[in-house]
């Protein structure tokens, strides 16, 4: 039987465990050219909150009664496809279910499967080398365009994307990288493990004041995963010709109505700044370049990665909620099975 | 005697006539290399509201007791400077006063004087060929980067900058230019005189709905002079990879506190758009290029310009307020004297 978590109600305000329902269905036989995958890990991202809202966006919403969309790592169990053999580790968007049948055709954002190269840990394929790592890579490099000597600030800095984004800025010569995160444990991790030069705990500190202290000549790049008051505080501290990289806005994802926008947006005029949004799916044809760079930085020890791994398919919605409770440090994963082969 | 309007109190909320005081002072003798200018016109821009607020900005605030900063056109009365002779028309930032002494050294934004080329009407030098015309030129071309076929929307479209910006987009091949303005008279002017393809009266129409109707495939360039609800409406209608040119935000200039920002700013992510601010002073070394292009478009009839000319130095603060009352069509000027020579 294939255990799966389906979307059963559209969340109103904060997403709840009860917005998802667990069902079991028989696993069908595979057809010509198809393969059967047993999922081992589910990956969680704040953007998934947007996928269950019925609004026009960059990707169609998950329908009620549909398996929740999510990126996954699994292992091939059976294969009628010459490109895959039992035991292969694959990554894809199989969603919240134990088993998945595909012809293997689609890539990172499609409901297919891509083979994971030998020697790469499956967890890594979902964190620093997965969607969030690639988002950090293209957002920081293509939108932020860090230059030697830049002062870079990252919000949501202890999350899967933020933690990688700040380290990339440092690798590219930023003179100072400041992270904004919630809680002293995350802040300590940023400075002691990831090489961030400073960390601001938005739960206990005055972010605007600390940004003025840490960035007396202004922020050259603000990489934003949060929005809300933190974006406004950063806008007030931008340097001339600075860039605001809009990656996400987790502070508003569970709001019943859109909260007010950044009241300091006219600082973009006063300081001649750019604020630009981007989405990873536009960069998938350059995924190999990103994976190569990220892998080599990991091997050389310049890029650290971290995963928060929960266990058990019964904990799937609960694990998703950890993102919005600010519980994860690094990539939020759920392990639902040991490699069976 | 030199009649002058000084800033005597910092406005709180809506600027009032009583924030300025009229005084007369003797006109001093000119020194070596100096010239005495009699001002003929004052020019008014919404940005001047920012210059009398005591906040860090791109230019130092006007101090209490100082002559109000403004761009001007005047005529040289006396000159000890070989570059200027009596009768020359000059433009500069002489401020709200009848007479002005300078060594002629500073340019467009400084307290100096630049000679107006023969054959150019002084009013034109303050409108389409002045600061607001150049702002439209660089904002539309360098930040908006119009391409053939683009759909372009301009807010504050009947103002001095907006009216020029939309026409430049059309000259550069925009397939459709839509103006947003207040009142049916302005809207009629945009479509019947300036060649705008459509106009939306924000005072009587639902801007969001009209934008959806007029721009069914989205807005490629939104040139914003207004901010507030109009910016939010435009953000909801952006096309993929669109550009929001932040030129101004007149809707908030007289607010006691900064109003909420654009709640739809995350559309910049969903549609992968850029929102970018700019200020004319960064482009002054390219002023000649702009004046040449704008002049040739005016001569060929492709670019129309309009001035709202009030009269009498006693009406200076009242004329400034016309900008915020939405009374002007085209450039707001005040004529304070006939050419004396």
Write the layout of secondary structure elements.
The structure is a homodimer of 341-residue chains.
Chain A: E1 2-7, E2 20-25, E3 35-44, H1 48-51, E4 72-79, E5 89-92, E6 99-102, E7 114-115, H2 122-126, H3 131-144, E8 151-155, H4 160-171, E9 176-181, H5 184-192, E10 198-201, H6 207-214, E11 219-224, H7 228-235, E12 238-246, H8 267-270, E13 274-277, H9 287-299, E14 307-311, H10 316-324, E15 331-335
Parallel strand pairs in A: 8-9, 8-11, 9-10, 11-12, 12-13, 14-15
Antiparallel strand pairs in A: 1-2, 3-4, 3-6, 3-15, 4-5, 5-7
Helix pairs in contact in A: 3-4, 3-9
Polypeptide structure, described:
In chain A, the strands form three sheets. In chain A, strands 3, 4, 5, 6, 7, 14 and 15 form a seven-stranded mixed beta sheet that branches. The longest helix of chain A has 14 residues, at 131-144. Chain A contains ten helices and 15 strands. Chain A has two domains: 2-127 and 306-335, Medium-chain alcohol dehydrogenases, catalytic domain (Quinone Oxidoreductase, Chain A, domain 1), CATH 3.90.180; 131-281, NAD(P)-binding Rossmann-like Domain (Rossmann fold, 3-Layer(aba) Sandwich). The first copy, chain A, is globular. With 341 residues, the first copy, chain A, is an alpha/beta fold. In chain A, α7 (228-235) links the parallel β11 (219-224) and β12. Chain A has helices spanning 48-51, 122-126, 131-144, 160-171, 184-192, 207-214, 228-235, 267-270, 287-299, 316-324; strands at 2-7, 20-25, 35-44, 72-79, 89-92, 99-102, 114-115, 151-155, 176-181, 198-201, 219-224, 238-246, 274-277, 307-311, 331-335. In chain A, α3 crosses α4. Chain A binds chain B through residues 56-58, 227, 232, 246-249, 252, 258-279, 282, and chain B through 56-58, 227, 232, 246-249, 252, 258-279, 282. β13 (274-277) of chain A pairs antiparallel with β13 (274-277) of chain B, so a sheet runs across the interface.
